[in-house]
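Incident log, structure service

09:12 report received: a user says their structure output differs between two submissions of the same chain.
09:20 pulled the input from the user's history:
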Amino acid sequence: MKKTKQELILEIQRDSNLNNEQKMNKIRQIFNDVSNCVYITPNCKHYDIQCIVLSPCCNQWVGCRFCHNEANLCENEFDRFKIDKIKCKSCFKIQNKSNRCENCNIKFADYYCEKCNVWTNENIFHCQDCGICRVGKKDDFIHCINCDGCFQKNHKCVDSTFISDRKTQCPICLEILFESRKKFIILDCGHKIHDECFKNNINKNNFRCPMCKKSAINMANVWQKMKIEKNDTPMPDEYFGVQVKILCLDCEKESLTDFHVVGLECKFCDSFNTQRI
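09:34 re-ran on a clean worker, output below:
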C-alpha cells in the first residue's frame, strides 16, 4: 500500500542522515511526483464520469474544475486548458488525457472535448467563438457576437449601456456567467442573470432586476390593479392632497405624486416601482 504524502514527508524529516537542504529537495520530489499520491476518490457532484483530473496549479486530484474552485484548494482558479494527467476510477491508472483508459479500456464519459478538457454524459458542443463547450445540441444554438455567448435560435439582442465581460457574475449566485454550465439570459434592462436564478426570484415575488431595480417583467396589469385599488381607497383627511417627490426606477424620472398607502405612482409611466427621494 502506498504511503500518503504526509507519511513520506515525516519519514524525511525524521531522517538524521539528511541535512536541511537534502530534506527540502526530497520533499520537493514528492510533490512533483504524482505517482506518490495515495488514491482517494474525490466526490464530484457536477459530473458523473469515470475519471478524475490532476489540478495543474496545485497538483491535487479533483473530480473537476468546479470541485477544485469550491474546495479552495489553492489561491488559483482551475485552468481547464492546462489539464495533462487524469486517473481512471476503475483501475487507478494515471495517464495522459483521453476518453478511454489505456489500461482497462473503460470509457470515461459519453462526451469528451479534447480542446477544453471536458468529460460529461450531457450533450455538449464546442463553440469556436466562445472557446469552450456549451451544454445542449449545436443545432439548437447560435453564437451572438453582440451579446458574447451562445443562445437558443429565438434569441434577440438587447441594447444596453451596462458594461459586461466574460468575468461578469450572476447577481444572485455570483457564479461567472460566461463559464457557467447553466443557461443565462439578458433582461430588458441589459443585465445578465442565470435563467434559473431569475425564475426563482420571480417565484419569490421579486420582480425587479437585482442590479438596477428596474421591472424585469411586464408589470402593466399589476400597475393597473394597484391604480384601481388606490382610487378605491381614500386616504384620511390629514393625508389628502399631500404630495411627495419620487424617483421612478423604471423610467428613471423624478416627479411629485400623491402620497398613498397602496403605492407611489409615477406620473410619467404609471409604474409603482418607485422610491421616495
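09:41 both user submissions now match this output. Likely a transient worker issue. Closing.
09:42 reviewer note: The two ends are 71 Å apart (CA to CA). Residues 222-276 form a domain with the Rubrerythrin, domain 2 fold (CATH 2.20.28.10).
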